[in-house]
Amino acid sequence: MHDRKVVRRRRAVLGLLVGCALILLTAYFGEGSGGGLHAIQRGALAVFSPVQSVASDALKPFRDLFGWFDDSFDAKGENEDLRKEVQGLRTDVADASERLRLSAQLEAIDELISSRGLDDTKPVNAEVTIVSPVIWYSTVNINRGSGDGISVGDPVLNADGLVGRVVTTVGNASRVRLITDADSGVTARTKDEVLGIVQTGTPGDPNDLLLQRIPRGDVPKVGDMVMTAGIESRRFSSYFPPRIPIGEVSEVDLDELDTSQQVHIKPYADLRDLDVVTVLTGSDAGAAETSP
Amino acid sequence: MTTVNGQLVLRLVVLAFVTVLLQLMFFAQVPVFGAIADVSPLVVMAVGLLCGSVAGASMGFSIGLLIDTALLQTMGLTSLVLIAVGYYAGRLRDLRDPQGTLAPIVLGAAAAAIATIGYGTAQFLLGAEQPLSWALISATLSTIVLDALIALPVVALVRRWLTPVLPEDPRRRRRRAYTTGGLSPLQRA
Questions:
Q1: A121 near A128, Cβ under 8 Å?
Q2: Sequence-ordered alpha helix ranges (H) in chain B
Q3: Residues with Cβ < 8 Å from B45, sequence gap 6 or more?
Q4: Which residues of A touch B139 (CB under 8 A)?
Q5: Which of A97, A122, B80, B146 is 20 to 30 A removed from B57 (C-alpha atoms)?
Q6: Which pLDDT belongs to residue B129?
Q7: Contact with chain A for residue B27, Cβ under 8 A
Q8: Does residue B46 register a pLDDT over 60?
């Protein structure tokens, strides 16, 4: 008799919990981004952001310690690659400087950029407090928000290049969608003016992005730098000012280029190891042009 | 089924918050050979093994809800997956009461597998437009292996935290008597 009561109670609790989870799931999908559950999440983000910030600072020495062990293993292999990369970059810089000096067209583009006020973007530095551990969500939370002048859509960079853009912001915290997220898309071009859209490549591999929708006939080369185009495509609004470095072309498969019009890119920014980022709060780059 | 008391509930609440904080601010940011440990299914599994299926499922729901809220993810999805982990760990305790030294490793791997594969499957069912790739499989497998490796200390820590407030369990008392030199009923006879 007692056993039956226990079994009934156990099943009732299980059913209740599963029911609650399913109701939450359904309600979350059913409501818009201004709905109650989304508001609860934003409220929780605002309330717990100070706690997250303090806890993140407290745990930083331990993260750094573990990171040091991991980095030490990687450093040996990376050293050789980096030497080769530096040599290549020196050549690239010399070539680029020469072309920049000679090319009146590039000077005109620089003037155009200056005239559009992109030099006046107001950068806000922020620390990364939370990194999504789930492969499916490539997002990070940062400890600066609308109170610091950040708004939804602002581009986020680090010292290496483009990181992502702000998708949610409250007074003292924001959520940044990385360029590796499935819902992210960045209109981009190579230094040879090959246009495309940078999208996530292989889920779980932050070092593999795709430059897609490359016009037929254009063939990017391995090692070409890919940077933001600052124009709008039919599918994605451009939240990014032009000429922010994104990465370099890492693989060009001519069959894949022919059939899928895409090549692979390795991002410059190490998106698995973000510590400090900068948000460009005053940019409004994408309104002027529309891609073909 | 373990009787729930106030102190146990308090310790479970503290455990849930600490688990989520550590998961998001430490483990998620410290890749080990490229893999990221996920301690939440391990803690839920440990609670299920120690406190039973109801407490395990409730812990799974709570931790999942906290993670989804903190990360602004689809609410209810992580809860659904972790409820399964906690409930089946609790049922395993009720039916078999696994006590082997290496049991946490095997169960940790199983819990991580249920959590990661279950979450991935749910994502596909909800319409994630991502191809099933080798990198995805590799990331999933490496998380399962890493979780299996850290399951032993995680379960030990959870046991250490909860044991003082767990109600006396006849099976536990019997085991303690054997392992500390007490006579078994057969020897006494």
A1: no
A2: 6-25, 39-51, 53-71, 77-95, 103-125, 134-162, 170-179, 185-188
A3: B56, B85, B86, B89, B107, B108, B110, B111, B151, B155
A4: 135, 204-205
A5: B146
A6: 66
A7: yes
A8: yes
Q: What is the pLDDT of residues B93-131, one digit of tens each?
A: 888 877 777 888 999 999 999 999 998 888 888 776 666
Q: How confident is the model at residue A182 (pLDDT cuts 50, 70, 90)?
A: confident
Helices (H), A103-215: 104-115
In this structure, are strands A195-200 and A263-267 parallel, antiparallel, or unpaired?
unpaired
The pLDDT confidence band at residue B144, using thresholds 50, 70 and 90, is very high
- Give, in order, the Cα–Cα distances in Å from A128 to each of A53, A140, A281: 9, 7, 17
Q: How confident is the model at residue A14 (pLDDT cuts 50, 70, 90)?
A: very high
Predicted structure pTM score: 0.64
CA distance from start to end of chain B: 30
Q: Is the pLDDT of residue A110 over 60?
A: no
Is residue B48 packed enough to be buried (19+ CB in 10 Å), middle (13-18) or exposed (0-12)?
A: buried
A204–chain B Cβ distance below 8 A for any pair: yes
Q: Distance (Å) from the C-alpha of residue B64 to the closest C-alpha of chain A?
A: 9
User: Are A155 and A279 spatial neighbours (Cβ–Cβ below 8 Å)?
Assistant: yes
Question: What are the tens digits of pLDDT across the range A194-224?
Answer: 788 888 767 667 788 888 888 888 888 888 8
List, as ranges, residues 77-136 from B with C-beta within 8 Å of A: 77, 79-80, 83, 87, 119-120, 123, 126, 128-131, 133-136
Neighbours of A242 (CB within 10 A): 21
Q: Are B67 and B78 in contact (CB under 8 A)?
A: yes
- Residue A150 corresponds to which tokens in the numbers above? 């950040």
B21 touching chain A per CB within 8 A:
yes
Alpha-carbon dihedral angle through residues A145, A149, A152, A156, given to the nearest 10 degrees? -80
B9 interfacial to chain A (CB closer than 8 Å): no
Residue A191 to residue A198: CA distance in whole angstroms: 15
Q: Are A232 and A288 in contact (CB under 8 A)?
A: no
- Give the closest of A17, A28, A202 to B75, CB-based: A28
**What is the rounded average pLDDT of the residues B69-88?**
90
- Cβ contacts of B134 within 8 Å, gap of 6 or more: A202
Q: What is the dihedral of CA B133, B110, B20, A33, to 10 degrees?
A: 50
* Nearest residue of A to residue B90, measured between CA atoms: A10
**Chain A residues whose beta carbon lies within 8 Å of the beta carbon of residue B38:** 133
Buried b (16+ CB within 10 A) or exposed e, A38-64: beebbeebbebbeebbebbeebbeebe
